[in-house]
Amino acid sequence: MQGNEAVLARLQGVRKRYGKQLALDGVDLALQAGQVLALLGPNGAGKTTTIALLLGLLRADEGRVQLFGHDPQQLAARRRIGVMLQHAELPPSLRVGELIGLTASYYPAPRSVQDSAVLAGVEDLLVRPYGKLSGGQQRRVQFALAVCGNPELLFLDEPTVGMDIQARQRLWETIRALVAAGTAVVLTTHYLEEAEQLADRVCVMRGGRIVSDGSVAALRARVATRHVRCVTTLDAEVVARWPGVRQARRESDRLWLSCDPVEAVVRRLLDADPALSGLEVQPAGLGEAFCELTRDVASPTWSEAA
User: Fold this and answer.
1) What is the pTM of this model?
2) What is the bridge-based pairing of β-strands 62-67 and 7-18?
3) Does residue 147 carry a pLDDT above 70?
């Protein structure tokens, strides 16, 4: 995952302190073209600091940060990215179309205002003042501003906060279309479903370090817990007392189990009920894997916005 081919952004041995607090502790991270990288972690893990370094908003105390092979503060590099931060202060009196047009003017080969608006689903808001929009509508406008420069690399920090389900799913579809067209994405989100839907690579941060880096499937595989579903007459309360069963519940004719390890439990199920059917074994969800990797974190003395 950290090869040298087509690397768009890179951190090498990066450390960053805020006073006595070590926010990043020797982070190595490389983002390649065509990737959707989800950067996950609890508050204080270092996600926001990592993004700020890649955007040139902060300087590393140690190590090297590159954006398209250049210093992230160089204009030539910054013109190749789009950014949607979690918090944005925009002129409330400007109309949506004016905001998109103004932002697009800073880029050498931008999308048209109309194309940017369609991508973000705000084509019906172009004549509305930004300050008169709902929170979800403002987030969609901010996405339009992030993509109007036709970026090669898109940074999305909690992009769907404040959006309803329909707007969130539409944005996911747009992000997939942009990736299919060649745009790389760095995503930070508290919605693990969002990471599962969009990311082909997940980095989990804890205490200023990367503790896991790989696909969603690889992250799930790090957790031994498996889920078992089957049709059986066995009593859930009895099965819950078996070794290796963490949880058991019944829904109609189906029994649902969480197991670790799973093999012995499955063998015992089959031995206990020869008529058992519909047996399914599934890996842990991304949420469980995330909690497993971050559960030992003490409450941080310094907290960053996720």
Assistant:
1) 0.77
2) antiparallel
3) yes
pLDDT, position 193: 83
Asked whether the CA dihedral 175, 198, 295, 236 is positive or negative, the reply is positive
Per-residue pLDDT tens over the stretch 57-115 = 999 999 999 999 999 999 999 999 999 998 889 999 999 999 999 999 999 999 999 99
Tracing tokens 């200023």 back to the chain, one arrives at 208
CA dist., res. 70 & res. 225, Å (int): 43
Residue type, 25: D
Instruction: Say if residue 29 is exposed, middle or buried (CB neighbours under 10 Å; 0-12, 13-18, 19+).
Output: buried
Rounded-to-integer distance, Cα 122 and Cα 141, Å: 7
Spatial contact of 43 and 205, defined as CB atoms under 8 Å apart = no
Instruction: For residue 270, give the amino acid letter.
Output: L
The residues with which 257 forms a beta bridge, in sequence order, are: 228, 248
Strand order in the sheet with 21-32: 21-32, 7-18, 62-67
Residue 145 CA from chain centroid, whole number: 20
**Spatial separation of the C-alpha atoms in residues 149 and 107, rounded to whole Å:** 5
Residue recorded with tokens 């690397």? 7
